[in-house]
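Technical note accompanying the year-one report. For the benefit of new consortium partners, we illustrate the data format agreed upon in the data management plan: each record pairs a sequence with a structure-token string. No post-processing was applied to the example shown here.
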Amino acid sequence: MAGATRRPVRPDDEPFLRVLDAGARRALFDGWDDAAAAQMLALQFDARRAGRQGAREQIVVLAGRPIGTLVTSEGAEGLHILDLALVPEARGLGLGSAVLRELLADGRPARVEVEASNRAALRLYERIGFRREGDGDGVTITLRRASDRATD
């Protein structure tokens, strides 16, 4: 994983996760005053975490420090990537690709929903074999990666 590792989320990771989440989503509230945006980001963070009961939450670590998060769940249709986020200084270095390639090395099918405005994420997933399912709803786009496991 290009030197990065993953470990389970611990309770003491919450401040890092809140800052990472707010940084990744702040643009959604452009034009809002800082206090209102911070309150909305905190409410959304709490709601997303509450809705992920049973999901596997991991911290991406590089050189001993957290640089991102990966949240996944398993279902009948394969792996569902709920979130992959890296700190700004870790983006564009191939770390996201490396995390995803390692995660998908067993060839299982996977899906992810990406914000339609997040062109970098769309390129990342398409580069490693995900394909768009339609045009999305204007807010998110679903991408799928078919299984590449050999069939019996």
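Partners are asked to follow this layout when depositing records. The mean pLDDT is 90.
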